[in-house]
Amino acid sequence: MARQHLVTIADHRPVTARLRWLALQAGDLARDVRPGNYLLLRCDDPGDGYRLLRRPLFIAATMPELGQVALLYEAHEPGLAWLARRSVGETLDAFGVFGRPLSLDSRLHNLLLVGAGAGLAALIFAARVAASHAAVTLLAVASDPDGLPPSFLLPGATEYLTGTGADLAASVTAMLQPAAGVSPLAWADALVAALPPDALTVLSQVVRTVRFRWSRGFALALIDIPPGCGVGACGVCAVELRGAACLPCVEGPWFDLRDIER
Amino acid sequence: MVKVELAPKNPYGLALATPVMTAAGCFGFGVEYERIVPVEQTGAIVTGSVSLRGRRALPPLRLIETPAGLLSVGAWLDPGVDRVLREYAPVWATWKTPVILSVASDHGAVAAALEGVDGIAGLELSFGDDLAGIARIIAAVRATTLLPLLVKLPLHRGLAVTARAALDAGADALTIAAPPRASAPDPLSGALLHGRLSGPAVRPLVLEAIADACAALEAPVVACGGVTTVTDARAYLAAGAAAVQVGSALLADPFAAVRITEELRSIEP
What we know:
The structure holds two protein chains of two kinds.
Chain A: E1 3-14, E2 19-25, H1 27-30, E3 38-41, E4 55-63, E5 68-74, H2 78-84, E6 91-98, E7 110-115, H3 120-130, E8 135-142, E9 159-164, H4 168-176, H5 184-187, E10 190-194, H6 197-210, E11 219-222, E12 239-241, E13 244-246, H7 248-251, E14 254-256, H8 257-261
Parallel strand pairs in A: 7-8, 7-10, 8-9, 10-11
Antiparallel strand pairs in A: 1-2, 1-6, 2-5, 3-4, 3-6, 4-5, 11-14, 12-13
Chain B: E1 4-5, E2 15-16, E3 20-22, E4 44-50, E5 62-66, E6 69-73, H1 81-92, E7 99-103, H2 107-113, E8 122-126, H3 134-144, E9 149-154, H4 159-169, E10 173-178, E11 181-185, E12 192-198, H5 203-216, E13 221-224, H6 230-238, E14 243-246, H7 249-252, H8 256-267
Parallel strand pairs in B: 3-4, 3-14, 4-7, 7-8, 8-9, 9-10, 10-13, 13-14
Antiparallel strand pairs in B: 1-2, 5-6, 6-12, 11-12
Helix pairs in contact in B: 2-3, 3-4
């Protein structure tokens, strides 16, 4: 059940010129969070009433032994720029946990993660969880190298492939349909993606091209959550899936890629 | 804390345990927050606005932050009255907190659909900026249901005249004000977006309208506009409002209405 947490910043540092790592002291959260869970962070001073929307941030890691959870974000707008100015020891108002967790088959051998942007945090978390029982490959794309999470955030055994370019969909295509060699899609037992909508469309086309058979459940995709209520009250996150409107803030963020494709 | 009666002349009455309510929209239909926020500690829940058939959730509402305000572009979720009565009203019927159904269109038809339904303590009728014929619509709703009626009015010249006409047509109380029209650049594209502004930015405008309306009218007036703290609530109550509604502040702090209630209680036991 979601509730309000007043959490202390345990670590807050840039990991690239654009991305920041934020660890929160939150023992009750650290025990239970899963990939796909997100927090709604209040990003103004109490009583300011200036920024009225909480910022949704996916959890990138949990460290139960330290009682901490960690977030990865880019301060690309005023609310997150406010967050970027907060220091270790300060208290944040976090509301959550929201989001249905990612469910992966425990018999999984080869997991392929493909992502860009805010959803990469959830994929990093998925890599950390899956690395104990599966071979994990993370394919990350960004407009420039500073938008790519550094490899030290990933478990040591993770194969980490990166691509950069203004056209994220083209970068994904180039990496999944290489001119020479075998596509990582060919041997993956499961695909989990977090990409912008146009890149997800391209990813669907690539899956159909590379895979002989695309069974339901093979490919899951994260739909990003815009700032809003988190409980399905406002509808700002509404998307159409299989001909019906759905609310990723409560029904997602994970959906079968085949449903998104339609 | 003194109980508030928003419909003193209505046979059902509309008694609130505290003068702090949620405003239409930002708290959804209340059930979304049922397990998170102690809704029984608020004076009343005003639901999201419903129409007879509802509207598709797409394109989705957009919420744009402006200095001390929130621009709502598009419409909030409206599942239609049938779904509301089927899924939400049975839950509301178990609450001690009164639930007031917000109706933004098809007013008469929605009111007729409420016949014999438990869980709805009153209606809040809103009309956007088109105030032509609202007296006729209110009278038609009044003829359909005995439930307490709040009428939510926008800021406009002649507000007192419109308010008096609404009361004469059968309204029990007034809610001032509906969010005014406003525009802001799209943070993504820069294109000008048109919507409705809520939040602290509108508070001084609404406070003046509340003071004027309370001086001119004898019916209960509910203030709605930028309440985020107990200080804001007290300013409206001091100006004559019978109760206040908390709206956009609930997005930043879902507990805002409960917190303001508790702080009011500690100030005015």
